[in-house]
Design goal:
Blueprint: E1 3-4, H1 15-26, H2 32-39, H3 43-55, E2 59-66, E3 74-82, H4 87-98, E4 103-110, E5 115-121, H5 124-135, E6 142-155, E7 174-175, H6 185-196, H7 202-209, H8 213-225, E8 229-236, E9 244-252, H9 260-269, E10 273-280, E11 285-291, H10 294-308, E12 312-326
Antiparallel strand pairs: 1-12, 2-8, 3-5, 3-6, 4-5, 4-12, 6-7, 6-10, 9-11, 9-12, 10-11
Helix pairs in contact: 2-3, 6-8, 7-8
Length: 337
């Protein structure tokens, strides 16, 4: 479901709300009874607070983050600059991109580009074929396009809200390509259920897949240990808590690559960095930033350049206005051949 990042709603949070958000960000499948124990309140109190956070739009869809690189996929980040398309035609363009089984992210932007979408593909040839197939029907409106290929990535933490409980958080999950993991039919059946509903219980998955509940539990544990399943979390609409979402592309001076790892360590613990990934192409790094306003964005970028100015040759930032699609596996993975 699409949601706007421009129309904000004032939401009030207390310490317990923030702790709930932190715990669910780390593991959205955590039983409410365990959350209640962490907060020293009743299970019913936890359920009430979570439902209120859902009603306010703070907690959006629940998500399973998969390490798609372990399954042989690379992420191709495509940006489009459009011209001459009416609102109705732009809606058709977005609908077409969002309905594709190979696309996993679809964002409307404000800045140099108008649209960003991500195609997961197993090769450059597969990406090229998918890109042409998707874009060709509306290519007359595309006056410029570019893409970069995502490599290793790190998912940050939603701890930029005031007084977020840092002690709750664990190390950031990472998408890395080690060796390809070969999934079997049972893996795929379990992954499909968790893709569609990350909160499905082992018994629910067992009933749906016709697998024994012990088999389901074993496959989930195996997928977690193999870093195929990385995290169960939720979408947080930053606009609801009066934050903005910006994407920043960095280009490096490769004579100072020794500063790349220190920069990533700095990004990994920064509360306003929710994601970053190595990319190949015109840029070297893509960063998701959740900030309170443009001045906050400037201060963050300026601080980063002060520390790593020798490395950062140039940068470009665009604002995310609307999210139309967000997932972490291509739907075509579950299509029977």
């Amino acid at each position: 479901m699409a949601y706007s990042l421009v129309e904000t709603i004032r939401s009030q949070f207390d310490v317990r709300d923030r702790k709930i958000l932190a715990l669910l960000d780390q593991n959205a499948r955590m039983p409410h009874s365990q959350v209640a124990k962490e907060l020293d309140i009743s299970k019913q109190g936890v359920s009430y607070r979570i439902n209120k956070l859902k009603e306010k739009g703070v907690i959006g869809r629940f998500l399973t983050i998969f390490n798609f690189r372990r399954l042989g996929y690379d992420a191709y980040y495509v940006q489009l600059e459009l011209q001459g398309a009416s609102k109705k035609e732009i809606k058709k363009i977005l609908d077409r991109i969002g309905k594709q089984a190979s696309t996993v992210w679809l964002l409307e932007l404000y800045g140099k580009s108008d649209v960003l979408f991500v195609i997961l593909a197993r090769s450059a040839a597969e990406f090229n074929s998918e890109f042409k197939r998707i874009v060709s029907p509306f290519h007359k409106f595309v006056i410029d396009h570019s893409h970069v290929v995502g490599l290793d990535a790190s998912y940050g933490r939603k701890n930029y809200l005031p007084d977020s409980p840092e002690s709750i958080y664990h190390p950031n999950p990472e998408i890395k390509e080690t060796n390809s993991y070969k999934v079997d039919s049972a893996d795929l059946a379990v992954m499909k259920e968790l893709f569609e509903n990350p909160l499905s219980s082992v018994l629910d998955i067992s009933r749906s897949t016709k697998l024994h509940h012990e088999t389901v539990a074993k496959h989930i544990a195996q997928l977690l240990s193999e870093n195929v399943l990385l995290k169960f979390t939720f979408e947080l609409n930053p606009a609801v808590v009066q934050y903005e979402w910006h994407l920043s592309y960095l280009q490096f001076d490769l004579t100072h690559v020794e500063l790349e790892e220190p920069l990533k360590k700095w990004l990994g613990v920064h509360p306003n960095v929710t994601f970053f990934t190595d990319v190949v192409g015109k840029w070297n790094l893509l960063i998701d930033l959740h900030v309170s306003d443009v001045e906050h964005l400037y201060q963050l970028i300026h601080g980063m350049k002060e520390k790593f100015g020798q490395l950062i040759r140039r940068y470009e930032t665009v604002r995310v206005n609307r999210v139309h699609k967000c997932s972490f596996l291509p739907e075509k993975l579950f299509v029977k051949k």
